[in-house]
Amino acid sequence: MTTVLRYSKPGNTGDNLDLILDAIRDQRVEKIVFFATPTSPAEGYGDDDGLETNLPLVAALVTGTFIGNIPIEIVLDGLFLTAARRPRYLEVRTMLDEAEKSGKAYFALDRVPFTSSLSPEDAAKTMKSLGPVSPLTPDSRRRYFSLLSGVTEKDYEQL
User: Fold this and answer.
1) Which residue ranges of the chain lie beneath pLDDT 50?
2) What integer pLDDT is reported at residue 66 of this predicted model?
3) Which phi-psi region, left, alpha or beta, contains residue 155 (left: φ > 0; alpha: ψ -120 to 50)?
4) Lower CB count within 10 Å: N or C terminus of the chain?
């Protein structure tokens, strides 16, 4: 039986970035699927999702085997990371750089509904119910980033 947990956000995107980088580098983590939320408030949008000006948000589902070989899924949702402004984009860029190199990162081609108001189990189930996922590679990265921002990474780099 898989244990499902939700990462309790400290409210600091720097800490959130460190957490996802640790997960990417952790040998016990087998797979990370990244998601993008809707671009405007929709069903499920709540206080944990922050201000509308931060949308869309990065969400993720981390899967691994931890203490005692127990399979665990960790839901990362709500106001976790965003590429809404250049300083936040730099955090997302760092995450994507590391994820791309890991070989265990994927992204959903469809937007995930807001899940922060759901139980961790229901949030994970919602995330896993989405359509196909694609490996995050240098070639596919642009597709995922287009779900997070109307500005390209190339344009952000020129700011």
Assistant:
1) none
2) 86
3) alpha
4) N
Note the pLDDT of residue 127: 98
- Please report, for residues 3, 27, 65, 110, 143, the alpha-carbon distance to residue 103 in angstroms, rounded to integers and kept in the order given: 24, 12, 17, 21, 17
Contact present, 108 and 131 (Cβ < 8 Å): yes
The H or E element that residue 126 is part of is helix 120-128
pTM for this entry: 0.96
What pLDDT was estimated at residue 96? 98
Predicted pLDDT of residue 67: 82
Cα dihedral: 135, 93, 28, 113 (round 10): -70
Alpha-carbon gap, residue 59 to 111, rounded angstroms: 10
CA distance 124 to 113: 11
Q: What is the pLDDT of residue 9?
A: 66
SS3 98: helix
How many CB atoms lie under 10 A from the CB of residue 23?
24
Contact criterion met (CB below 8 Å) for 4 and 75 = yes
Cis peptide before 120 (omega within 30 of 0): no
pLDDT at 82: 96
